[in-house]
Design brief:
- 59% of the residues lie in helices and 14% in strands.
- The strands form 3 sheets. It has a 7-stranded antiparallel sheet, with helices on both faces. Strands 9-8-12-11-10 form a 5-stranded antiparallel sheet. It has a 5-stranded mixed sheet with strand order 14-15-13-16-17, sandwiched between helices.
- Strand 2 and strand 3 form a beta hairpin.
- The longest helix is centred in the first third of the chain and has 70 residues.
Length: 785
């Protein structure tokens, strides 16, 4: 309130003061011009993005149209090929001259013809059934049965609203080389079906015969529905004569489509603005047309335009207000700018990037590009590998990793492999360089270090890893197997002695090496490095004493072990809730300071004071979650001032550290449980979405994809993709057993965009195809031919 009153008072004085007005304009105009410039660029990007999304939407619609046309063309071509094979059969052609099918040996010939017909509908679900019709003998034969025409029409198949006489007359009316009849409702085996009829005549005009195929129009309509939205859209197929073969949606007069060319067009149909996609088949000259309301097709584009327009308008208003505020508060313009620009950048980036990631073509293009560029990325990664290894070694030596698991993950990324059980760190220093480096000396040092690293890599590449520390120092990370830690250190003495001789003889380089203590845990490597560093600082080096280990170090002045790297690692471990590693590090500090040596009282108080300061840092990061441990922490902080023995005071401080660490661990576990339940619930609610991915989970939880992948595998024991596939397969089996829905509809219902993808996944998960699974779970039909 006081600040607001102060601002209002200054505004009043500003209006009354011409000098203050000039100062305000001086600061306001640059901000305003900069804002207008940014908004102009944003508006240009918004226009270009809208045009690009609209263009990609149209291209996607035409691509789906071309795919549907190609699939149906292949299906129709397959049916025509089958019809030619059936009509060209010797037995089928010879039977056309039979007038009395049940006289003499003709019944035997009928059975032979019946057996000669292959049961194509069993393997081709696009074909409902097919028959060979002989109008002269009033016989009709199929792979499953044979009928008289009248019996067939009454019991097996008939068109709705068409008499037997009309049907028979239409069959014998004229000779058809091949003809498709438009989809209509028929009664087949007592059930109603929508079929497209294909007729293929053979024989002669005096003795006609024909092959009649019943094509499942439902499958054609399902494919046409992909081309049209449910909100008033429709699609249809017309043959070369303008006859509608099949359609999806409400289709009225189609004469308007004749004037359109292939591709994407706009048209007014029945008073509505429609976007029309048209394609003509090269195979049979048929026309495929889909029409969708413009508002439905371009819904994302319109939404994007409205959203970005709103953002730009709000950005302009907010920017002008911010410009006034920045001008008024000229003492802190940089702080306000940094506070505002990242927020604006994140908002704009998230709103403009989301639609492109959800477009199928964009995803497919991105994945294809990644596959083709994989080799190039591998080469670039290999070039960056020395930097990754250097960063890993630096963090490891300074104790930045909280656990062995973190180190193992970092080693995998840096492609570092250590197979030995024991580890130790040595510090190699090239003699003769004590500071005051010039350009020539630095060049000479670089050459000598390259020689040293080359000898190490060729002779002990799997045992010793080298990492540059300074102009004349190299850290040696050594690992190996031995019967004991002492045997391992003896082995290192021999190796380092040989290397020192080689450096002197081959490279003419004199070195001295300090080696820290042996350890088995990777998290203790930083301790070994710190020990080697302290040895390097306090030793008096000579040619006789060129390699010194921690165990044979010279006596030093009483001091305590608590370097900055150890303090930083302790703070990180407590903050991460790693109780085991925190306890081990505290025990290491206790062992180095209170067990291995007897510190003077003054030095001990300094150590305890530093530990108290570290404890205060941990309290500040832990926040308000430490109320149950408040008394224990206060008692630990007072232990330094109460004159307690160092060991007792250290134990109380260590207990306070562990209490904070346990609180952090409990908070972390609670958060992980809530996050796991949220992820499982989100997957079960959205498994049917084709775009469900790690990216969606990351967006839902506002975390990264890499973290979600690692967290999900850690909490559930399975990968996200395996879990999602199992869930989808469970629902798919339920739908296959409990419904008669087509397999392609079930595939879409459980989240698969492609029937082929669903089929491969189902067979991989269940050992048989979806169709075979449905048949195995339903009772078999006991009726015969």
């Amino acid at each position: 309130m006081e600040m607001n009153t102060h601002m209002l008072t200054r505004k009043g004085s500003f209006r009354s003061s011409r000098k203050d007005l000039k100062v305000l304009l001086h600061f306001f105009i640059p901000y305003a011009l900069l804002l207008v410039g940014f908004l102009s660029v944003g508006y240009y990007a918004y226009e270009r993005t809208s045009q690009l999304i609209e263009s990609q939407t149209k291209e996607t619609a035409f691509t789906v149209m071309e795919q549907t046309k190609d699939i149906l063309d292949r299906r129709f071509e397959e049916i025509e090929t089958i019809a030619e094979q059936v009509a060209g059969g010797t037995k089928a052609r010879s039977f056309q001259y039979v007038e009395q099918p049940f006289a003499g040996t003709n019944p035997v010939r009928i059975l032979e013809l019946h057996k000669d017909l292959f049961d194509y509908p069993l393997f081709n679900h696009f074909i409902l059934d097919y028959f060979v019709v002989y109008p002269d003998s009033e016989m009709i034969v199929s792979p499953n049965a044979m009928y008289k025409l009248r019996q067939f029409y009454d019991l097996k198949f008939r068109y709705e609203g068409q008499s037997y006489e009309t049907w028979v007359g239409a069959l014998a009316d004229r000779y058809r080389s091949k003809a498709f009849l438009q989809g209509q409702i028929v009664t087949y085996e007592g059930k109603q079906h929508s079929v497209v009829t294909y007729l293929r005549s053979f024989g002669t005009k005096e003795h006609p015969a024909l092959v009649l195929f019943l094509i499942d129009n439902t499958q054609i309509q399902n494919m046409l529905r992909r081309l049209s939205s449910g909100d008033g859209g429709f699609a249809f197929i017309q043959d070369e004569h303008g006859q509608t073969i099949s359609q999806s949606g409400v289709v009225g007069d189609t004469s308007w489509s004749e004037a359109l060319s292939d591709g994407f067009s706009e048209a007014d149909i029945d008073g509505r603005r429609m976007l029309v996609t048209r394609s003509t088949s090269d195979y049979n000259g048929w026309t495929y047309v889909s029409a969708q309301p413009e508002a439905a097709v371009l819904e994302k584009v319109q939404y994007l335009r409205r959203l970005l327009s709103t953002i730009l308008a709000l950005g302009l208003l907010a920017g002008m207000a911010a410009a006034l505020l920045f001008a008024y508060r000229n003492s802190r313009p940089l702080w306000m700018l940094l506070r505002t620009l990242p927020t604006a950048g994140r908002t704009a980036g998230s709103e403009t990037a989301a639609p492109a990631r959800n477009a199928w073509d964009e995803i497919r293009s991105s994945v294809t590009n990644l596959v083709h560029r994989n080799g190039d990325l591998e080469e670039k990664l290999e070039l960056q590998m020395p930097l990754l290894r250097s960063g890993f070694y630096d963090r490891l030596l300074r104790g930045y990793y909280a656990s062995n698991q973190d180190i193992a993950v970092a080693m995998e990324h840096a492609r570092v492999s250590w197979e030995g059980e024991f580890h130790a760190v040595g510090l190699l220093e090239i003699s003769g360089y004590d500071g005051g480096y010039n350009e020539e000396m630095l060049r000479e040092l670089d050459i000598r270090k390259l020689g040293v690293r080359d000898v190490l890599a060729k002779s002990y590449g799997r045992t010793i890893a080298a990492h540059d520390l300074s102009e004349n120092q190299i850290a040696l990370l050594m690992n190996g197997d031995a019967d004991s830690a002492a045997a391992f250190m003896d082995k290192l003495r021999r190796i380092l002695g040989e290397l020192r001789e080689r450096f002197a003889n081959e490279l003419h380089v004199a070195v001295h090496v300090s080696v820290g203590g042996c350890c088995r845990r990777l998290t203790d490597i930083s301790r070994s490095f710190e020990e080697a560093r302290l040895l390097m600082q306090r030793e008096s080096w000579s040619s006789e004493r060129a390699i010194v280990f921690q165990d044979d170090a010279s006596p030093a002045m009483p001091t305590y072990f608590y370097p900055p790297d150890v303090e930083l690692r302790l703070v990180n471990l407590v903050a991460s809730g790693n109780v085991t590693e925190t306890d081990a590090l505290l025990e290491q500090i206790r062992d180095n300071n209170l067990v291995r040596q007897s510190l003077p009282a003054a030095v001990g108080r300094i150590l305890l004071g530093e530990l108290s300061g570290t404890l205060l840092k941990c309290i500040g990061e832990a926040g308000s979650g430490l109320d149950p441990h408040r008394e224990e922490i206060e008692r630990a902080l007072l232990a330094v001032e109460t004159g307690k023995p160092p060991k007792a005071a250290f134990d109380e401080i260590a207990g306070a550290f562990l209490s904070i660490c346990r609180s952090q661990n409990d908070r972390k576990k609670s958060h992980n449980l809530q996050l796991k339940d949220d992820l499982i619930r989100y997957i079960e609610e959205n498994y049917h979405r084709t775009d469900l991915s790690l990216g969606k989970l990351a967006e839902h939880t506002q975390t990264s994809e890499a973290y979600i992948s690692y967290f999900f595998k850690e909490q559930t024991g399975v990968n996200f993709s395996d879990y999602l596939e199992r869930l989808r397969m469970t629902h798919a089996r339920t739908l296959l057993e409990g419904s008669d829905a087509p397999v392609n509809e079930i595939a879409v219902a459980v989240g698969y965009y492609s029937l082929n993808t669903f089929s491969r996944a189902f067979k991989r998960a269940n050992g048989l195809s979806a169709t075979e699974y449905r048949k195995s779970r339903k009772p078999q039909d006991g009726s015969g031919f």
